[in-house]
Design goal:
0% strand, mainly alpha, globular
Amino acid sequence: LCRAYLLGFLNGYPEDNTFRPNNNITRAQMAALIVRCFGATKEGDISRFTDVSDDQWYYKEFSKAVQMGAFNGDNNNHLNPNNPIRFEECFKAVACTFGYIANTDDKPTDLETQDLSVLDKFSDKDEVSDWAKPYVAAIVANGIWDGIDGNLTPRAYITRAQFAVVLDNLIETYITEPGEY
């Protein structure tokens, strides 16, 4: 949590500058964190999403996150920015953003070939939604998340602190200066 703050990825709540690490992270907060981690600047067209207006603090962050492939909305053209995000939804966004699985409208072959046996060590593996299994397996297989007390808790909401741990496990080297690496 401290490293995410020190690097400027995780900010406090503007009204009182508190972190509230045990609060569930919202989809908008997660989009902002992912965009900050990548230093993303390219915005995508999110005009089709009816629940995100350009006067909201997260509008540009979501436009960048959509461009990156982290989010693609639901069947009702909603991004649901203020909703908390479940572990399995988070893992889909992370797996797609970090290139573990392609995020496209058609079904990529890597969804079909993902080894799901890595989920066998979790007592609640059957609670993972069928659509989410390849994404969750990709996150587990790459050492990004190893559960909570032997559980994946796929349908529980992920907290701000838990997402900071996911980010810390994802990003081994933080590059803060321009140059060739």
